[in-house]
Amino acid sequence: MGGLSIWHWIIVGGVVFILFGGKFKISDVMGDVAKGIKAFKKGMAEDDTAEAAKPVDTTVERRAIEADKSPDGNKV
Questions:
Q1: Cross-strand pairs, 69
Q2: Residue 60: in which H helix or E strand, if any?
Q3: Residues 23-61: pLDDT tens digits?
Q4: Rounded CA separation 6/34 (Å)
């Protein structure tokens, strides 16, 4: 009950490797995450400005509504 199993040692080794070794360091990983979040926000902002700049054509919608109505003003 007091000993550590192989899974405990694998987890401890993984944490030590992430903190101290290799190219996969916490600061590098967090920098990449931050770049990804910034790129995502920039992409979302570009989509909003593109939709806002596009004029809305309501004539097609208005014609479709008028075509659905009968001459006395009731919907068919």
A1: 75
A2: helix 59-68
A3: 667 777 788 889 999 999 988 888 767 666 666 556 656
A4: 34
DSSP state of 55: P
DSSP class of residue 3 equals S
What is each CA distance from 28 to 14, 15, 21, in whole angstroms? 16, 15, 12
Three-class SS of residue 69? strand
The H or E element spanning position 1 is none
Residues in the chain: 76
pTM score, whole prediction: 0.38
Q: How far apart are CA 19 and CA 13, in angstroms?
A: 10
